[in-house]
Amino acid sequence: MENTAFKKPLVLVIFSLIISLNSIHSQEKEKNKESYSFQEVWRLTQKNSPAQKAILYEEKAIETGRNKASRHWLPSVYLNGRSFVTNDPGSVFFSNLGQRSVKESDFATKSMRERTSNFIDLNNNPYTNINTNNINLLAPDTLNNPGTGTFHRGTVGLDLPIYEGGAKSEITKAQEKALKAKGHEKQFTILNEYGKTAINYGEFMITEDLEKVLKNLKKSVDTILRGYQVGGASNPVGYSGLLGLKTLRNRVNGLIEENRSRRDGVREVIALNADPLPQNWKPEKRSIVAFANQNLQVNKQSIGKDSSSYTKAMVASAEVSESQANAEKAKFLPKVGVFTEGNLYGGNRSTATSYSAGFYVQMNLFSPSDYGSLEEAKMKSSADRARAEEAKRNEESQLTILLKASESLEKNIKLMEESSDLMNKQVGTSQKLFRNGSINALQMTEVLSRRVDLIIAKANAEREYLKVRAGLLSFSNQNVGAKNE
Predict the structure, then answer these.
(1) Which residues, 6 or more positions from 60, have their beta carbon under 8 angstroms from its beta carbon?
(2) Those residues with Cβ within 8 angstroms of residue 410's Cβ, 6 or more apart along the chain or in another chain
(3) Do the Cβ atoms of 110 and 53 come closer than 8 Å?
(4) How many CB atoms lie within 10 A of CB 199?
(5) pLDDT (tens digit per residue) in 372-395
(6) Could you tell me if 353 and 280 are in contact, meaning their C-beta atoms sit under 8 angstroms apart?
(7) Sign of the four-CA dihedral 24, 27, 30, 32
(8) Residue 328 near residue 374, CB atoms below 8 Å
(9) Extended strands (E) in 332-430
């Protein structure tokens, strides 16, 4: 029993240790990994994208505004409280009146001292005896100089708008459409960033492949130059061939340096956007056409039947302007509502309450700041509509161009790949002919130069093909979240 009790914790410790070691091994393996697929790079890029984070926050802000605007039909409730010291005659009197504790003495003024009744009786005879009217001769000036008092007042009220001319309803509609527009804008932003990442990744693939091809070509040129024995100045044909080969070598060296600079630059851009990535990471090995067909795939039959996210965002923005114009129009319509308010008054005399309830009608008859705002909103709405229509037409024309360019470039790249295979065979055959003297150095240089031209032309065609495919993808409404490969 004691051995069994001892073994259980030991097994748990060993099991936990194995899991920890496997986790550390997996992390180290991922850290030391050299080749990253495009979807892995895109997953990191999307996770770290400031543009996508910004538009997500904007979308949440609009959603919050939409929810706020949708509560316009709810009553507004307010509370106000104050405690103050004053010697203002009006404030003191009405504060006492609010306490329902106004006294007759509160109406006393100096003018009471000058009443005729203070001196003569009803028969217009002077008083011979002291009477109650004589007291007015000593009347205080309470109403005008009430002294200082401390008072308290609390108010709670409710305002329920019944009809606002449709202004708040139109604002709610505008927020709904703005949220819709932002959703389309977010989709377009993701597609656009996905396309840029794919172009950069494809450029990295092109430069990696191009470096190997150019280095092999440079090796061939160097081999020919080392074994070339008839390139003296006394032999014009041979010497010309030697100069041609050296010029070709310089050209290839320049292309290698240019390609290396381009490769390092695009790798840094990708690593910056998809941090963290190892310093010397490499892309997957695949042809550009195969890469595009997997990661930039679009349904060419359905594309164009529905507007792109960008155009949809433009149309939704135009609808926002239309709702805002309707809201401006509502400013000049009457507003009707009901209200109720309760007050609590306190002071050194008493405490009392009061209430008010009723309905109100408000109408903007003239306001300099609102004058012309309706016309301005209508013009803005019309302008946004025109821009949306322009975007739709441009999209149709660009889509036609891109579809044709995609087909043309894909065929061209396939032909170049076939030509590249044929050219490799030609180079090999020409090298044999050159070694046995059947062709001279100038002819060999011409063959190698055409090989260089084909290599560069193919790389440029692949770059253009990537841009075209990314452009086609931006016109689609596809979900380009990272996929598991």
Answers:
(1) none
(2) 289, 465
(3) no
(4) 18
(5) 787 888 898 889 899 989 988 998
(6) no
(7) negative
(8) yes
(9) 335-346, 351-362
Q: What are phi and psi of 185, to 5 degrees?
A: -65, -40
- C-beta separation of 118 from 136 below 8 A: yes
> How does pLDDT run across 191-209, given as a tens digit for each residue?
999 999 999 999 999 999 9
- Neighbouring C-beta atoms of residue 192, cutoff 10 Å: 17
Which pLDDT does position 337 carry in this prediction? 94
381: tokens are: 């709405």
Alpha helix (H) residue ranges in 32-82: 38-48, 50-69
Helix axes 236-273, 167-226, angle to 10 degrees: 150
Give the Cα separation of 137 and 366 in Å (integer): 55
Evaluate the omega torsion of the peptide bond into residue 276 and state whether it is cis, within 30 degrees of 0: yes
Tell me the pairing of strands 335-346 and 149-163: antiparallel
Q: For residue 346, what are the β-bridge partners?
A: 152, 351
Structure tokens at 166: 């449709």
Please name the amino acid found at residue 205: M
| pLDDT average, residue stretch 57-65 | 92
Q: How much is the mean pLDDT over the chain?
A: 85
Q: In what order do the strands lie in the sheet with 149-163?
A: 76-86, 149-163, 335-346, 351-362
8 A C-beta contact, residue 205 and residue 286: yes
Assign 454 to helix, strand or coil.
Answer: helix
Q: How buried is residue 469: exposed, middle or buried, by Cβ count under 10 Å (0-12/13-18/19+)?
A: buried
Structure tokens at 344: 């609590």
Helix (H) or strand (E) holding 328: helix 309-330
Phi, psi of 99 (to 5 degrees): -80, -5
The 3-state DSSP class for residue 359 equals strand
What's this model's pTM, rounded to 2 decimal places? 0.76
Q: Which of 238, 213, 248 is nearest to 445 (CA)?
A: 248
CB 179 within 8 A of CB 172: no
Determine the pLDDT at residue 263: 95
Q: What does the DSSP assignment read for 408-425?
A: HHHHHHHHHHHHHHHHHH
> Among candidates 293, 297, 369, 296, which has minimal Cα distance to 331?
369
482 Cβ neighbours under 8 A, 6+ residues apart: 39, 40, 42, 43, 46
Q: How far is CA 332 from CA 46, 163, 165, 309, 324, in A?
A: 47, 13, 8, 36, 14
Residue 120 reports pLDDT greater than 70 = no
Q: How many other CB atoms are there within 10 angstroms of residue 169's CB atom?
A: 18
Identity of residue 451: R
User: For 390-445, what is each residue's pLDDT tens digit?
Assistant: 988 998 899 999 999 999 999 999 999 999 999 999 999 998 998 888 888 889 99
